[in-house]
């Protein structure tokens, strides 16, 4: 009887050890699977870069639309690829005239540090409309704002005090900026007080005018070959500097292995 008891006990012990030591075959095979590198295209990497800067600088919280930011930075790198601005330049300024003048619709962004330097009010031309600009011109005496990419130049003292010269890069849209004396300058009508009194900002004669309180900071930050992009509601606007392939290949010339995925 005892012999039978011990035989049964031994059999149960062997069965328990077998069950405990057994693992599903799929688990063992899964541990042997290695990650396979996946190479992203230059355009995919560039899209990731744009999202990273946009999110790190918290540009959404300040009211800048992602699509407008993407266009501005695409142009910035097209201009770099064309040697229009110095390679060390990291500042881009975005003005979105599709927004109400009551909003802070100028953004100055440091692309290297992924940082929003300044978000402030900016005026549009009186020939472009009242609160929201809806008409744009490149013509003399139109007193309208001009859309597109600009490169800042030198500082001078004019009728509005210390001002910053602008060169328009988009033929037919803003390349008359110098002839029209379109510059960045201070204006007292760019203030919350004017908004409270008129329901909108005051308007310029076509210049992206800013408040006297921030004019010094704006001019000192932007002077000397930085990029300014003025966006607006105009389906006719187009630019050779909005080439996504050029921008992506400039930043990521050969693509890169950016992530891994299991088989």
Your description of this structure?
The structure is a single chain. The protein is 32% helix and 21% strand. The chain is an alpha+beta fold and 263 residues long. The strands form 2 sheets. The protein has a 7-stranded mixed beta sheet with strand order 4-3-2-8-5-6-7. Strands 1-9 form a two-stranded antiparallel sheet. Helix 3 crosses helix 4 (66-81), helix 3 packs across helix 7 (244-251) and helix 4 crosses helix 7 (244-251).
**Oligomeric status:** single chain
Helix content: 25-40%
The biggest beta sheet reads: 7 strands, mixed
Proportion of residues in β-strands: 15-25%
**First-residue to last-residue Cα separation:** 57 Å
Structural class: alpha+beta
Shape: globular
The sequence of SSEs as H and E is HHEHHEEEEEEHHEHE
H/I helix tally:
7
Give the domain tally.
2
Radius of gyration: 29 Å
Query: Could you say what the CATH topology of the largest domain is called?
Result: L,D-transpeptidase catalytic domain-like
Secondary-structure arrangement, i.e. CATH architecture of the largest domain: Beta Barrel
Identify the CATH class of the largest domain: Mainly Beta
What's the β-strand tally?
9
- CATH superfamily descriptor of the largest domain: L,D-transpeptidase catalytic domain-like
Mean pLDDT rating: 88
Spatial order of strands in the largest sheet: 4-3-2-8-5-6-7
Low-confidence stretches: 1-28, 257-263
